[in-house]
UniProtKB/TrEMBL annotation:
The keyword Nucleotide-binding does not apply. The lineage of its organism: Bacteria, Bacillati, Actinomycetota, Actinomycetes, Mycobacteriales. InterPro entries: P-loop_NTPase (IPR027417), Polyphosphate_phosphotransfera (IPR016898), PPK2-rel_1 (IPR022300), PPK2-related (IPR022488). Keywords: Kinase, Transferase. Residues 40-257 form the Polyphosphate kinase-2-related domain. Pfam families: PPK2. GO terms for biological process: polyphosphate metabolic process. GO terms for molecular function: polyphosphate kinase activity. PANTHER family: POLYPHOSPHATE:AMP PHOSPHOTRANSFERASE (PTHR34383:SF3), POLYPHOSPHATE:AMP PHOSPHOTRANSFERASE-RELATED (PTHR34383). This is PPK2 family polyphosphate--nucleotide phosphotransferase.
Length: 277
């Protein structure tokens, strides 16, 4: 089975059963993955250029939105750096969603999300997303349960609208074990070049893992739709999660059936004009 197919969330799958150390759809080791990653990154960059070119030259209105969710230190930043970093930044719209500002809080929770959507021809990257509004918000009851409870259906309707407008959503939920998270946080504490990544609040969130597990389960159960399915990416091995997200993006772009847009000018005539110019 392909990596992308192996990662798709299926109704009935349980978050508690995820093997965070597994490498679904890939048999090899880290060293086997390195040349594959290099080759697949090139493929991804090629497809992204086609997406961009088709918008520029043929007014293709389609776009891709990569939604990254995961606990602290799950490796979202590494995906942005290594996977998204392999494509031309000209065609990428990256946004990270932290604690909402006062201005954002004064609006509907989808307000800041809508403003960050990728333009046609682009790959949008959401480093955290509207799903925080049913994850951290649910765990801490930042709004009453009937308010966050209504958001699952609302998010589905919102995503339906995006898909109908020509956007392909690639929703990725990254899972690491509590042991791996501890190791990653310890590394951040031990390494002065990583102190900027460390947030004391991460330990408080970590202690809430059982509640997060429930919130992630509800998110996957209620918002994995046929038009915008979730993918569960085991992320203890970072080389694997990077390869996996690369494959998910390639699969999404390949389904768009892109080819080089034909010239909308007379090539021969232009060659003649250029020779004389
Ligand atoms: P890393 O995974 O490397 O720690 P990060 O994504 O946690 O990076 P931070 O700036 O440390 O980046 O944290 C952002 C914080 O903002 C997270 O704790 C997240 O849960 C929180 N957050 C995001 N959206 C919302 C929201 N709508 N309401 C409340 N908190 C939110
Ligand atoms: Mg954090």
């Amino acid at each position: 089975m392909s990596i992308a197919a192996a990662l798709r969330f299926n109704p009935g799958d349980k978050v508690a059963d995820i093997d965070t150390n597994a490498t679904p759809g890939f048999d090899g080791s880290k060293s086997d993955a390195a040349p594959v990653q290099a080759e697949r990154s090139e493929r991804l960059a090629h497809l992204q250029e086609l997406l961009f070119a088709n918008n520029k030259a043929a007014d293709d209105q389609r776009s891709v939105l990569l939604v990254l969710q995961g606990m602290d230190a799950a490796g979202k930043g590494g995906i942005v750096k290594h996977v998204v970093g392999a494509v031309n930044p000209m065609g990428v719209r990256y946004t990270s969603f932290g604690k909402p500002t006062e201005e954002e809080l004064a609006h509907h929770y989808l307000w800041r999300i809508r403003r960050a959507l990728p333009p046609a021809g682009h790959i949008g990257v959401f480093d955290r997303s509207h799903y925080e509004d049913v994850l951290i918000v649910r765990v801490h009851n930042l709004v009453p349960p009937d308010v966050w409870g209504a958001r699952y259906d609302e998010i589905n309707a919102f995503e339906r609208e995006l898909v109908d407008g020509g956007m392909t959503l690639v929703k990725v939920a990254m899972f690491i074990s509590l042991d791996e998270q501890k190791k990653q946080l310890a590394e951040r504490l031990d390494d002065p070049t990583k102190h900027w990544k460390y947030n004391p609040g991460d330990i408080d969130e970590r202690l809430q893992w059982p509640k997060y597990q429930e919130a992630y389960q509800a998110m996957l159960d209620r918002t994995s739709t046929d038009y915008a399915p979730w993918h569960v990416v085991p992320s203890d091995r970072r080389w694997y999660s990077r390869l996996a997200v690369t494959e998910l993006l390639i699969t999404a772009l390949e389904a768009m059936d892109l080819s080089w847009p034909p010239a909308d000018f007379d090539i021969k005539a232009e060659k003649k004009r250029l020779a004389k110019a």
